[in-house]
């Protein structure tokens, strides 16, 4: 710590003590409290408390703005300092935009992952529906074949019944159409009963 900054700090502490309401502003009391040794210790304590934070702040400021330069004056050096500051700000803005892009891409990747999970679930459902449709199609085909066989069997049975009826009717007609065994009758009878029994 340099001597001018110590003296300045001592003066500031002395001013604070003078303004404090507990002191009656008597110079004797202030000089006793604010003796060189006491002020030195107070200044050292304050510096150890705030110095690390100030150094860290200076380093961060140097990263953003750049190393401390001489005070800007009007002219080309001032313009150069402004241009440097602007370039550093642009660099910082680009870095922030890149971080934002990465964040958005990460979010999009999570959404895309969610979509893949949804697609996979729907694909599984689709496969289950396809399988069920195939099973139902097979059942329908088997039922159609069975119905066709039943229909053919019924038609065949109906045809057989029809043929049996026709055969029975034909037999009945044959039985009705045949007269009883002809007996020898006398040729002198004027009427013949065989003509009367013939079906018309």
TrEMBL record:
Keywords: Coiled coil. It comes from Megalurothrips usitatus. Residues 79-113 form a coiled coil. Residues 182-194 have a biased composition (Low complexity). The lineage of its organism: Eukaryota, Metazoa, Ecdysozoa, Arthropoda, Hexapoda. Residues 152-200 are annotated as: Disordered. This is Biogenesis of lysosome-related organelles complex 1 subunit 6. GO terms for cellular component: BLOC-1 complex; transport vesicle. It comes from the Eukaryota. The keyword Protein biosynthesis does not apply. InterPro entries: Snapin/Pallidin/Snn1.
């Amino acid at each position: 710590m340099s001597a001018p900054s110590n003296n300045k700090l001592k003066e500031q502490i002395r001013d604070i003590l003078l303004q404090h309401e507990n002191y009656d502003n008597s110079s004797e009391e202030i000089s006793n409290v604010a003796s060189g040794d006491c002020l030195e210790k107070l200044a050292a304590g304050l510096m150890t408390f705030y110095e690390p934070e100030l150094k860290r702040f200076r380093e961060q400021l140097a990263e953003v703005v750049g190393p401390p330069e001489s005070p800007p004056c009007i002219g080309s050096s001032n313009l150069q300092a402004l241009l440097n500051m602007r370039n550093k700000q642009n660099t910082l803005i680009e870095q922030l935009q890149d971080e934002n892009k990465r964040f958005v891409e990460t979010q999009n990747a999570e959404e895309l992952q969610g979509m893949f999970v949804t697609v996979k679930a729907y694909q599984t459902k689709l496969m289950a529906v396809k399988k069920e449709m195939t099973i139902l199609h097979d059942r329908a085909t088997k039922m159609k074949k069975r119905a066709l066989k039943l229909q053919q069997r019924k038609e065949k049975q109906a045809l057989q019944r029809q043929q049996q009826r026709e055969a029975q009717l034909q037999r009945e007609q044959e039985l009705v159409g045949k007269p009883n065994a002809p007996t020898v009758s006398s040729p002198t009878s004027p009427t013949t009963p065989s003509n009367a029994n013939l079906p018309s």
